[in-house]
Design brief:
Length: 254
């Protein structure tokens, strides 16, 4: 009997202090609440800072480790900041970090795995939140090649309330049924579910295993341009006007 959750509180907006929430029946496996001095890098025991032009999805950004793009705010948040930068071939820099550890939705499992394996999307990917071009729509997506309607993936969406409040995005794996067909993965915003899939939705046990039984790294990034968003133009904001700000990331387990 097992369930787990990945929870992120974020907003491209103002700095604020947050306490890690507690949930009935769940204990904290791991978390980062991004406390530190303004301008510091995130904790290197928790995060790998990814740099360079990765050539993904026709995106334009070059990822850097500069605090111009990636920094602790000094107020208990992490800021990922895209910027126009004429010194790069694409004219843009941004930030991307990936968790050092991986987390597997099985009882009591917290593993540090090698950063190699099956290519995307066969390896499975779960996007807890994607937001495009500043629109107040949040997308939750599962990628798993043939059974996930690629290249879009199996996707749900919800409206993001306007204003300057942070929001809690949560991804729940429920494996309490002990039956792969009825196990589920559910996306929610501020405690309200907006999308869910189960093993029957995917229709293939091996593919479901890549989404619900396999180790996952946590990734935070701000991309510029690309297939999904289209190229930036003169109206595209950079700097703090288009950053992603994260108050905490946490993994819970029953």
């Amino acid at each position: 009997m097992f369930s787990s959750a990945l929870i992120v509180s974020l907003l491209p907006a103002l700095t604020a202090a947050f306490s890690l929430p507690s949930y009935n029946g769940l204990s904290t496996v791991w978390h980062d609440d991004f406390w530190g001095n303004a301008g510091d890098s995130p904790n290197v025991t928790h995060w790998n800072v990814i740099t360079g032009d990765l050539g993904l999805n026709n995106e334009l950004e070059t990822y850097t480790e500069s605090n111009e793009n990636l920094q602790i705010s000094g107020g208990g948040t992490l800021q990922l900041i895209p910027r126009r930068n004429s010194s790069t071939s694409s004219g843009w820099t941004s930030a991307r970090i990936e968790s050092v550890d991986s987390y597997t939705p099985v009882p009591g499992k917290n593993t540090r795995s090698m950063r190699e394996g099956t290519s995307w999307p066969l390896c499975g990917e779960l996007d807890i939140l994607e937001q495009v071009n500043g629109k107040l729509t949040g997308y939750g997506t599962a990628h798993c090649e043939n059974h996930c309607e690629e290249p879009t993936g199996r996707q749900g969406y919800t409206s993001i309330p306007s204003g300057s409040n942070f929001h809690t995005w949560r991804l729940d794996w429920d494996r309490t049924s002990n039956n792969w067909q009825t196990e589920s993965i559910t996306w929610s915003l501020d405690g309200v579910d907006f999308f869910s899939i189960n093993g029957t939705t995917i229709g293939d046990q091996a593919t479901w295993s890549t989404l619900a039984h396999s180790p996952f790294y946590i990734l935070l990034n701000v991309a510029v341009g690309g297939t999904m968003a289209g190229n930036p133009d003169s109206n595209t904001l950079d700097g703090y006007d288009s950053m992603m700000e994260v108050a905490y990331v946490a993994v819970y387990s029953s």
